[in-house]
Amino acid sequence: MLICVTHRKLCREPFLTRLERIASQHPYCIVLREKDLSESEYEALARDCLSICEKYDVPLNINSFLGVARRIGCKGIHLPFHVLMEQKDHLSDFDRIGVSLHSPEEAAQLAGTPATYVQAGHIFPTDCKAGLPPRGLDFLKSVCEATTVPVFGIGGIHAERYPAVLQSGAAGACIMSGLMTCDNVAETMRPFL
Fold first, then answer.
1. What is the crossing angle of helices 39-55 and 15-23, to 10°?
2. Distance from C-alpha of 79 to C-alpha of 84, rounded to nearest angstrom
3. CA–CA separation, 83 and 170 (whole Å)
4. SS3 of 46, please?
């Protein structure tokens, strides 16, 4: 399974064109990351993205902006671990709740929360985390063993590395830069679907 995490500034074509190409391949979901935008800018983009995702019946998860998700009627949210823990009793209006975490100890605390998937990383070296050592497959395995919530590895994952990610116990992978920059979206996504 594949989660696409967006980063529009990496795209060599219009971002919404790229998003539509990705949505047409039916990933598990798309997380609209875009951390550099103000809330109002993010909301305007999220409305366009939600329209595209609904066209292809692909879930869209809003990154961190709970208010935006509620205002536009998006039923998916992706949160940092600490925000999930603060808000866990106030998320019943969401169908999909993703959480980014960085330790098996955090994963073990997910019991009783409404989290529906985990994003754990970064697993391999990646330009997005330049200079930071990757946590590796043993880390991913320990996160998977610490929770019953499906775990998706993130960071430097491509088709050749995907079998090792699955062998670590992950349900799938998250890809950002690889999907934002590739020449052929369908071909890049095929090994993960």
1. 40
2. 6
3. 23
4. helix
Q: Quick one: which of 117, 67, 111 has its CA closest to 95?
A: 117
Whether 22 and 48 have beta carbons less than 8 Å apart is answered as no
pLDDT tens digits for range 53-110: 999 999 999 999 999 999 999 999 999 999 999 999 999 999 999 999 999 999 999 9
Q: Characterize the bridge pairing of strands 172-175 and 2-5.
A: parallel
Which residues fall within 8 angstroms of residue 98, CB to CB, at 6 or more apart?
3, 29, 31, 61, 76, 77, 78, 79, 115, 116, 117, 118, 119
Amino acid at 16: L
Q: Which residues contact 140 (CB under 8 A, 6 or more apart)?
A: 120, 121, 123, 151, 153, 165, 168, 169, 170
Percent of the chain whose pLDDT exceeds 70: 99
User: From CA 42, how far away is CA 71, in angstroms rounded?
Assistant: 12
Q: Which of 3-12, 121-130, 151-160 has the lowest mean pLDDT?
A: 121-130
CA–CA distances in Å: residue 65 to residues 37, 44, 138? 11, 12, 32
The answer to whether residues 30 and 22 touch, using CB atoms and an 8 Å cutoff, is: yes
Cα distance between residue 139 and residue 189, in whole Å: 24
